[in-house]
Specification:
The structure holds two protein chains of two kinds.
Chain A: E1 2-6, H1 10-27, E2 32-36, H2 39-45, E3 51-55, H3 63-72, E4 78-83, H4 86-92, E5 99-102, H5 107-123, E6 127-128, E7 138-139, E8 143-149, E9 152-157, E10 162-165, H6 169-175, E11 181-185, E12 188-191, E13 195-198, E14 202-205, E15 210-212, H7 215-228
Parallel strand pairs in A: 1-2, 1-3, 3-4, 4-5
Antiparallel strand pairs in A: 6-7, 8-9, 8-12, 9-10, 11-12, 13-14, 14-15
Chain B: H1 4-22, E1 24-25, H2 30-47, H3 53-70, E2 71-72, H4 75-103, H5 115-144, H6 148-151, H7 156-167, H8 180-255, H9 259-280, H10 285-293, H11 295-300, E3 304-309, H12 319-339, E4 346-354, E5 357-365, H13 374-383, E6 387-393, E7 398-406
Parallel strand pairs in B: 3-4
Antiparallel strand pairs in B: 1-2, 4-5, 5-7, 6-7
The chains are: A alpha/beta, B alpha+beta.
Chain lengths: ~230, ~400
Amino acid sequence: MKILIFEDDPNDLENIETCISNYFQSTNIDFIIDICQNENMLIDCIDNYDLLFLDIELGDVNGIELGLKIANMKSNCEIIIVSNYKDYLIDGYKINAKRYFIKPINQMSFNVEMDSVIKNICKKNDGFYDYNLYPMKIYFKDIVYIEFVNRKSEIHLENGKVLSSSYPLKHWTNLLKNESFGQPHRSYLVNYKYVYAIENQNIQLSNDEKIPLSRLNRKVFKQLFLNSLHSVI
Amino acid sequence: MNYVFLSKFLSLGILAYLGKGFLSFRKNEFYRNLLIFQIHCILLCLLNREFNILNIMIVLSIYLAYLFFTFSSSKYNYLFVLLLYLVISFTSTLMIESIIRLIFPFGNIVNETSGYQLFATLISSFTSLVACKIYIRIKEISQCFNISNILLFTFVYPLIIIVFMSFVYNDYIKITNEMLLPVMCSILIFSNIIILFVFYKSIKEIELHYRLKDSIEKERLLNVKYELLNQNYKTNFKLLHNILHYCKKLSLQNQNNEYDDLSTTIHELSDITFKEFELIHTNSLILNTLLNSKYEEIYTNKIMINTTIQYNEFSFMKLSDLTEVLSLLLNAAIESCKLNELKKRNVTIKTIKIGQQIVIQFLYPDHPDSKIDKVGLSNILDTYKGMISEEVNKELGFRSVMIILKNSSR
């Protein structure tokens, strides 16, 4: 895992580095830490990293603006905000950062908070190849939902593409059983990541589509959706 | 078949029931009371033969004697119960007799051995019993609102009627006498006015009762506020005292040129200030209050609290419910921290909105003995169609408790 730290204070930098090293050593995940203190360099190389620790109160640079720039670049790099003051964190929410830390970072707090973030980053490349369906790898994170209709499975992707497959829904249920997917209806398999609202008879997705929610599956689906949030927030 | 014994047995039974409702037993011994009841029942059967003034006096004396030997109270209360019983018994007999005469115009109700007599006796006794129950209930309610003395006035009309009836005994037809009718009407109006007055007083009493309740609640809230302010004062005092202590230490170290120690002290001071600030300052007013109220416990047990309040719009929830939910979760987290070693005592509180879901999350070190009051939480969550989920990360040894709510007002 490639990690970039954007921090100008040597003490805080040391604190962040120690926390990262301790965590990764305990989890046996390979990692590389790079330090950057130049805004342009950061923007140029951000795509090469999985994780960025961004200090909000930088000397000459406005950390919030820098964070917004990176967020607008839609980079795959996840942002973690670090700050001396809690009040600045409110601004940090605009950046859509994954986590927020107050300096100095406590190791226990770091481990607890970062565990789900790191695990999600590790899983972000999970997917499968099926050249009959798609010429490239299909990432699980990109599947919004799968619908079984007219004896065919239709895979709806985040980019709006719909892939058609002759596999029954059972095949997809087995393939995605360890992923963050749930079955709100016997003909649908939904990625919890895209659930916007659970209504009485429907599920509203973040792309404004509605999926039926059967009375039989409602309770289990809601509970599993809630359980899936433990690794998200 | 003569039903006199049955009639007397039921009458005395009803009097006993009424007495039990208004008076207290002289001795709470079942067999003693039963024996007194049986003796008086036999006396009533033996002595009540003809319907005349003397017999009425004898019957009333037996009733009074029964009340006296069975119950312990003042002579006015005995008289009151007896009068009430007579009113109830008389009016129900009169009412049932009229109804029976209406339904069975040719039935011989006067004949003590006829089936009509048995039917009338049973029905009128039952009616009397129901009336007694109602009066006892009225008395219980009146005691709740402290209006028993005023309520007694509602009996004015029946009491006047009984006195009036003593002059027209054995000839109920006289009641319909045209001359008596205006008197009856006047009494009825008077009685109704009194009942209205009693109703007015009752409403006033109820209003006062609620005002009192309201005042007690306000006083309680004021005390809670005072406690919280006091707690805030103590927290601030402690913090300032600590800072003052460190300032003195810093000044001394500076004077003595102990720069290494000075650096350590500055680090300690910033660490303490950070912890205190983090503890008392969140984006949520309720959480601030809760953390302040538990400050002493958190401080003494060296528990570190981190808060990330990204969503704070809980107006769809009652303040008391939200406080209760957060308090139950915070209690569970603190208790679990206490069971863990010092370095693990770290609680993270987060609130966030994901889509339309409002999520409250508590992360704290796990311990097998730590428990959450799920019943208490579920009672509140059911109101808001909320759900709870728990997950334990065994690798890191922490527990994540999550509550999901939906803003139903939108």
